[in-house]
Amino acid sequence: MTVIGVISMKGGVGKTSTTANLAFAMAAQLGRDQVTVIDLDPQNGLHWHFGVDSENARGLCEQSLKRLDWADASLPSEYGVNCIPYGRVAEQDREAFELLLANESNWVRDQIQGAGISRNGVVLIDTPPGPSIYLKQVFACADLVLIVLLADAGSYATIPAMESWLAEMSITYPSSRSIYVINQVDRNDSLNRDVAELLQQHLGKRLAPTQLHRDEAVAEALAMQQPVLVYDPHGQASHDLRQLAGWAISTLKR
Predict the structure, then answer these.
(1) pLDDT, tens digit, for every residue of 63-72?
(2) Where are the domains of the chain?
(3) Across the strands, what pairs with 126?
(4) 2-141+214-247 CATH, one of 3.30.70.20, 3.40.50.10170, 3.40.50.300, 1.10.1060.10
(5) Which of 134, 125, 149, 59 is nearest to 100 (CA)?
(6) What predicted TM-score, i.e. pTM, was given to this entire model?
């Protein structure tokens, strides 16, 4: 089993959309039911990208507090990707879950292993932005961590803080590899283009070889509760995501 964590230092960078659409792109290459997405973000929005109704479903937060396996929280989608939602929970339950994660550093890893996921499968984990107990859990189990950022001044300014966080995590979890992914690149915007080039120079080989270009189809696909590769299979975003999925599969030597 291979685990990919998707993180960001700030919100609004398209992290959840990237997680969902990359998962489908990988499933298209690896086969149905070979990819599972886990929503470790209390916002609980990942399932919408697959048209999965989790209103009455038991999410991973509730399952964890009841000391039950996450397998019972896994929901199939018509797109061949299984989804384990965070679930809709009260604030006190979220706080109790985060306390559990703080006390049991390998909780997510252990739950993934017991969730009935194929030994040859791929797991992608979506996380809330910024350093948190959720990110520590991801680093404890991820083979690859993708850091999503935009080609703008706001994202560029977060890199020193992210680098400091990554340096700290590398001491405890030296086997986890971290790669930056630039999202929503707009070659028609001179500032966006210039920042993208600056990021390329600054990050070098720590930057994924594929950039994800700005494409309105991504937001439109979410409105239709579909992966963008289904909504607009020949669009720019779909092309980029296929390339990123192929790179991730090759990098993980699958």
Answers:
(1) 999 999 999 9
(2) 2-141+214-247
(3) 6, 39
(4) 3.40.50.300
(5) 134
(6) 0.95
